[in-house]
Amino acid sequence: MASSADLDVNDYQALAEFRYQIRKFLRFSEGAARAAGIEPQHHQLMLALKGLPDGIRATVGELAERLQIRHHSSVELIDRLTGQGLVQRRRSEQDHRQVLVTLTARGERILRELSIHHREELQATAPRLIGALRGIVASGKRRARAQGSRTPASSGSARRQPERQKVMSNHARQR
């Protein structure tokens, strides 16, 4: 009997379509950032900074986590943005070892314009992105129905979890 990890051509097509739609949006985003006079990574850091959840401090480490980059790479990006007058650093009043990052007025203006364009693009492309994601979800539901009433835990996914963690751990080391 097929396990939940088995894939058929529909699964590959759904995953490929979703990846394609994401990449189209990312390409738009990269072009929009460059048209605004900044690099895509700079835009990403500015957005991560402005979009931090309430209660999360804008430290170099937190920004590195949000961007999924190493601490020293985050420092480099912040250095570049500081040089362009888009962000500024200041020492935390509560913990002088921590450096906090904030957007400057110029950074706020550029980020606002980019965010407006991104929201418009997402509103236009949302049906394709949502459709692609629904295709992946539907594929998983079809597979579950085809397997009967077996739950993911009983079909062996619990046994595969350490394997997924190993793959993800290897990926993290490669970055």
Question: What's the topology here?
Answer:
Blueprint: H1 9-35, H2 40-50, H3 60-67, H4 71-83, E1 87-91, E2 99-103, H5 105-146, H6 157-174
Antiparallel strand pairs: 1-2
Helix pairs in contact: 1-2, 1-5, 2-5, 3-4
CATH architecture: Orthogonal Bundle
In the predicted model, the low-confidence regions spanning at least 5 consecutive residues are: 151-160
Biggest sheet statistics: 2 strands, antiparallel
Task: Provide the β-strand percentage band.
Answer: 5-15%
Quick structural summary:
With 175 residues, the protein is mainly alpha-helical. It contains six helices and two strands. The chain has one domain: Arc Repressor Mutant, subunit A (Orthogonal Bundle).
Describe this structure as you would to a colleague:
The protein is mainly alpha-helical and 175 residues long. The chain has one domain: Arc Repressor Mutant, subunit A. 68% of the residues lie in helices and 6% in strands. The protein has helices spanning 9-35, 40-50, 60-67, 71-83, 105-146, 157-174, and strands spanning 87-91, 99-103. Helix 1 crosses helix 2 (40-50), helix 1 (9-35) packs antiparallel against helix 5 and helix 2 crosses helix 5. The longest helix has 42 residues, at 105-146. The chain starts with 8 loop residues before the first helix and ends with a helix.
Q: What labels describe this entry?
A:
175 residues, mainly alpha, Arc Repressor Mutant, subunit A, two-stranded antiparallel ribbon, 68% helix, 6% strand
